[in-house]
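Regression report. Comparing outputs from two consecutive submissions.

Submission 1:
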Amino acid sequence: MDLNIFVVAGLLFLILMFLVVFAVFMSYFRWWIQSVLTGAGITFFDLLGMTFRKVKPSVIVPTKIMATQAGIEDPELTAKALEAHYLAGGNVPMVIRALIAARKAKTIALSFREATAIDLAGRNVLEAVQTSVYPRVIDCPAKGAARQSLDAVAKDGIQLKVKARVTVRSNLQQLIGGATEETIIARVGEGIVSAIGSSQDHKAVLENPDVISKAVLARRLDSQTAFEIVSIDIADIDVGENIGARLKADQAEADTRVARARAEGKRTMAVAKEQENQAEIEKSRAKLVELQAEVPKAMAASFRSGKLGILDYYKLRNVQADTDMRTSIADAGAARSKVTTS
């Protein structure tokens, strides 16, 4: 009786184990049979290990099959490498699609290692490959920017407002660590401003806008960037203000103000000098009054000493009266001549 119980328990255990193994096998059978039929090289034990490594077979198996069917022959592209990229937080399907797009283009050399590095760097590797095949156009200035045009002034003082379009192609070799399109826009804007600023006449720029494009392209503005500049086209160019004339007018106004300030300073100094002279005159008059006050004293002393007589005194008064009369006549004549002239 006890033997029968052990036999039944063993059979139940074997049946349970068979059911567990069968359930596990059926859960991975679809991915395993797809891998076998397509030659992806993913074994059943690889699928089982993905579960313990917390890797989704639904991501790894289709991408490996996609790469195999596309004919991508890269020794580094293995199921383990795909799992490692998945665990690192990479976008495995996008990397494989990028590799397929690069292979179809036949002109882009992109390895699995480079693609995963670009993806882990935060760049859209598929978009980069597509941009390498089909160049994209960047507006300069960018749409939605504060300024709608690039403003530059030629040597003749005329302002030109320019809008440009830059056609770029992704440079996969410099995509990691290379500058983004904002740097391209800034450099192109700087080159356009420099090219217009070095022009002698704005009319020459209006007649041949390609002069700007050639000057900007010659400066190799795509150095150390993630893009290769294909062409720079001037989309629009307008004439702005006469900056040179305005600057000259502002300079003339500033010079006028300086001259007025200097003239005002000179006038102030002249007024101060005049006030000093008036003070000297008043000082001299005060001294004259003091000296005139001494005259009667001197005359009195002369009378007492007998050096001056009465007749001499009257002669002196007559001379003074005659002098005052001549002075008054001269002043009256000068006033009449002034009235006649006016």
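Submission 2:
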Amino acid sequence: MSPSSGHILVIDADANIRELLDVNLDSEGYGVKTYSTPEEAGEINPLDVHLVIIDSMERSFSGIDFIAELKDNPQTSGVGVFLCTAAGSQSLVIEALDAGADDFIAKPFSLRELLARVKSYMRRHHHLLKAGPTPPGTAVSVRDLNIDLRTHTITKDGMPLGLSKTESQILELLARNVNTYVSRAEIHSAVWNNEAGINDRIVDTNISRLRKKMGDAGASLVNRTGIGYMLSTK
């Protein structure tokens, strides 16, 4: 993958980790910039950054704060974020997923595993979603929401809806299977490719966040225990 299609920011106070990731991600063909703090990294340009790998950073502005701020901003909500945190910090991992993190890496991490996760994320988010049958036509409308499956654009009242790439993938998957339940496992498989280490809670967390962003149309994203989720136009 050329740097033009894969730019990564690494934010970590540990200079050794910054250098390790800089050298190895660069050798994989990614464009890499490293910073010691979010403040040093400055404003994130979604046109120039595809993925941020950030340490949990126990300080006044933590890695969790960074993730929440990035994902709450419609302009940058589509930028991927991996949180690096100490192994065993389950509560921190859940907090990161709730804030919008796309994945997490436990420290001390396996470099081979981290590179594999990065490659998988980049591959997922640089290809069109191809899961599920395409319904008749090229667009699905739910209340004031329009999902164009041909152009992969999602608008609300004619304005772009600020979804992360993961949220967009989930909504497109449900739109392609409109009025039909899609199981949690099927969503997990289509969007996360059943990656080992991905917390099962991430499906429910992303759908909960997606439903809120959909506003009134969120009521059309329904679930049935033991069956799955459905985008209903009825």
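Expected: both submissions complete independently.
Actual: both completed, but the second showed a warning that disappeared on reload.
Relevant detail on submission 2: The helical segments are 15-27, 38-41, 63-72, 90-99, 111-124, 165-176, 184-192, 201-213.
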